[in-house]
Specification:
Blueprint lengths: L41 E4 L2 E4 L6 E3 L2 E6 L13 H7 L9 H12 L22 H19 L18 H6 L5 H17 L13 E4 L1 E3 L4 E7 L8 E3 L5 E4 L3 E6 L9 E7 L9 E4 L3 E5 L5 E8 L3 E9 L10 E5 L7 E6 L5 E7 L3 E9 L11 E5 L11 E7 L3 E9 L5 E3 L13 E6 L2 E2 L1 E6 L2 E5 L10 E2 L4 E5 L5 E8 L11 E5 L6 E5 L4 E8 L9 E8 L2 E4 L2 E5 L2 E3 L11 E2 L8 E5 L4 E9 L15 E4 L7 E8 L15 E2 L6 H26 L1
Parallel strand pairs: 5-14, 15-21, 22-32, 27-29, 33-42, 37-39
Antiparallel strand pairs: 1-2, 3-4, 4-13, 6-7, 7-10, 8-11, 9-10, 11-14, 12-13, 15-18, 16-17, 16-19, 19-20, 22-23, 22-29, 24-25, 24-28, 24-30, 26-27, 30-31, 33-39, 34-35, 34-40, 36-37, 36-38, 40-41, 42-43
Helix pairs in contact: 2-3, 2-5, 3-5
């Protein structure tokens, strides 16, 4: 309830009806109350004496019309004039003529009851009132107009008139009452106050309009904003020209959009006060004695701008080996699982985190790695991440996915030969207190790399200032793994031979860990040719059939070999096709075959039958070539043949073939050679002395 100090001097009803002037049907009046009427009788207007005709609440052109007492002014400077009122009316606040403004506001919220309200018409005929409460509602607006016209009411900040007095209409008929008249009286005041003195929640003048985000409503599959305000909203109507859906109830207004709205270009919602009854301003000047005002009013607009927020996701990138956070991983953010519709690209920072804050709406999105950190395998499979309505950009809430990268791995296998000439895994004492195996060193551009031991035979690259960092790599059961080599091209050197063996004569080998050299096999104490079958990823490939060919008169011919066991062959010039275990076909053991006692010459390995799932390398395409030059046949020659997997379409890809030659000998061979060289050196010295004599 609004406190009021009002002073009303309402329309003292002087029903002085001259029966000789006109005839009234008194029985049509409802007993116990009378029609609200304007003043009647004699009065002076503009210096002239006038007489009121029959006056009251009229119905003109289908609109309610309210009377103003003859001679009452609506401005502070001159008498009210119907024509002037029409010309001065506009949609803004009329600050220079406050009475006109207040009357316009009253008419904005006056009840429109149509023709159901019976009124006294200008033709002097009096019609019966069919609904007392409806008529009293109209009468409430008449009372307020009278209060403004007489100067009793100067604002709508209170229910009581500002210049209230003990015998005012408010004190006599409104204060403490709860009938239709008093309820409507207070309703109109409330409506005017909250429409023209305050703005609804979040709305303001256009120049200072707020910009608010809509929120995603998954149940409606659209963006929405609901503003609850039972005090203000019920008196307003809304409009928008921006394609928004706006609905209004007595307690709230809901704004929604099916499409995203950029924050830089928000859409506008207008809430407007206006006269719902419509029509133009009406004024009636009856026989120069009575002014009548039609139901029209002023209007006021309030504004709000809306946009749809962006949503955000976060990628956390880790190493699968130890959970280390990885920087430099690059991802495409996609709206479809095939990742053809790319929304943007992000790269993980030093903390292994990358965020994308331009997601248009909640839902399922996909992240696809396009570039991996150095030392890690690229994983191009799109990963799904769910972005919820709470993951609004600029907040601490993200749709989050953690993705691990597999560390790149380089594998080395160290083998030797037993007393029977069989190639066996190296026993290096791994797991005991005494290590008897080899040591290796990996270099990049001549600089030794440092590693930390994860467990026996497994190392991860590190920096030299890390505790326990070492350049020496040891095998475990003849093997070791090295993780996270960041580049492709390296050299690996055997710096210490296994106990009882010597280093190869060429202990350093160039490797490409991005290509075929992810897996390398070294054999100490072996003299001959070693053939390694790998796929394009550098993994040893089991299966397939091969033959060794020697170049004779510029033509390569298959060589007959004796198979000791699978993967182990020997050359014998006296071998015939009828001999036991004689064969032209070479089978590998875990992708490796070794051939001993080959004479000098130019050789190549050709593929007769490709391993299952791989394309056959034609003879003419074979680049698995080697030339054996050591006449003592103690040289160790390595030949690699790399297959590519069969394409789904059946076409053949060109195969890349790599040939690497490495030499190694048994300790015993080195002793004999060194001894022989020493003897030859002594003989040469003796012969030289004799020549001089």
């Amino acid at each position: 309830m609004i406190n009021i100090n009002k002073k009303v001097m309402f329309l003292v009803v002087l029903i002085v009806v001259s029966l000789f002037s006109f005839s009234i049907n008194v029985n049509a009046l409802t007993s116990g109350w009378s029609y609200p009427k304007c003043l009647t009788g004699n009065y002076t207007l503009n210096g002239a004496s006038k007489k009121a005709e029959y006056v009251g609440i009229y119905l003109m052109d289908g609109k309610h019309v309210y009377c103003i007492e003859p001679g009452t002014v609506l401005t502070s400077t001159n008498d009210y004039d119907a024509k002037a009122f029409i010309e001065d009316y506009n949609d803004n606040f009329i600050t220079t003529k406050p009475k006109k403004t207040l009357v316009s506001q009253i008419l904005t919220y006056a009840e429109n009851l149509g023709t159901s309200v019976v009124t006294q018409a200008p033709d002097k005929s009096l019609k019966a009132c069919s609904n007392k409460d409806q008529t009293l509602k109209v009468y409430a607006a008449q009372v307020l107009i009278w209060e403004v016209a007489t100067g009793e009411r100067t604002s709508f900040n209170h229910y009581a008139p500002d210049n209230n007095h003990s015998n005012s209409f408010y004190n006599n008929y409104i204060a403490g009452k709860s009938d239709a008249l008093s309820i409507e009286y207070r309703r109109i005041i409330d409506a005017i106050y909250y429409a023209f003195n305050e703005f609804p929640s979040n709305f303001s003048l256009e120049s200072s309009a707020k910009t608010l985000p809509l929120s995603w409503d998954s149940s409606k599959n659209k963006y929405t904003l609901t503003i609850n305000d039972s005090t203000h909203i019920r008196y307003w109507t809304t409009s928008t020209n921006d394609g928004l859906d706006v609905s209004i109830t007595n307690d709230s207004i809901t704004i929604s959009s099916s499409t995203p709205i950029e924050q830089s270009n928000p859409k506008k919602v207008t809430i407007r006060v206006y006269n719902k009854n419509g029509g133009d301003l009406k004024a009636y000047y009856h026989k120069n004695s009575q002014d009548l005002i039609g139901i029209v009013g002023t209007s006021r607009s309030a504004y709000l701008k809306v946009y749809t927020p962006k949503y955000q996701l976060k990628i956390i990138k880790k190493a699968s080996l130890d959970g280390k956070l990885l920087s430099g991983a690059k991802f495409n953010i996609c709206s479809n699982n095939s990742c053809t519709n790319i929304l943007g690209t992000i790269i993980t920072n030093k903390n292994g985190v990358a965020t994308f804050t331009d997601i248009p709406a909640p839902g399922t999105y996909y992240v696809k790695e396009t570039s991996s950190p150095e030392g890690y395998y690229l994983n191009t499979t799109p990963k799904a991440v769910v972005v919820s309505a709470s993951n609004i950009s600029g907040t601490s809430s993200y749709g989050t996915i953690s993705i691990s990268n597999t560390n790149k791995v380089f594998n080395l296998t160290k083998k030797t030969i037993d007393d029977n000439g069989n190639i066996i895994d190296l026993d290096d004492g791994c797991g005991t207190d005494t290590y008897t195996g080899p040591e290796f060193e990996i270099k990049e551009n001549g600089n030794s790399l440092y590693f930390k031991e994860l467990k026996p035979g497994e190392y991860d690259i590190t920096s030299k200032d890390i505790e326990g960092a070492t350049t020496k790599l040891r095998t475990c059961n003849g093997k070791f793994k090295v993780y996270t080599l960041p580049k492709c091209q390296y050299t690996i050197s055997e710096t210490k031979a296994p106990e009882g063996l010597t280093l190869p004569s060429e202990p350093t080998r160039s490797i490409n860990v991005c290509g075929a050299d992810k897996n390398v096999s070294f054999t100490n104490g072996f003299a001959g040719l070693e053939f390694q079958k790998k796929d394009e990823d550098g993994k040893f490939v089991e299966g397939g059939k091969f033959s060794l060919q020697k170049k004779v008169n510029n033509v390569y011919r298959d060589i007959l070999l004796k198979q000791n066991n699978v993967g182990n062959y020997i050359y014998d010039s006296n071998l015939t096709e009828e001999d036991e275990n004689a064969t032209y076909m070479i089978l590998t053991n875990e992708g490796i075959a070794r051939i001993t006692k080959l004479p000098p010459g130019e050789y190549r390995i050709v593929e007769k039958e490709a391993p299952e799932g791989y394309e056959l390398i034609e003879d003419k395409d074979s680049k698995a070539l080697v030339t054996i030059k050591d006449s003592d046949k103690d040289g160790y020659y390595l030949v690699e043949m790399i297959d590519q997997k069969v394409n789904k379409n059946g076409s053949k890809s060109s195969a890349e073939l790599v040939v690497t030659i490495t030499t190694g000998r048994k300790v015993l061979n080195y002793v004999l050679i060194i001894s022989a060289l020493s003897i030859l050196l002594i003989i040469a010295i003796i012969l030289r002395k004799k020549v001089k004599k």
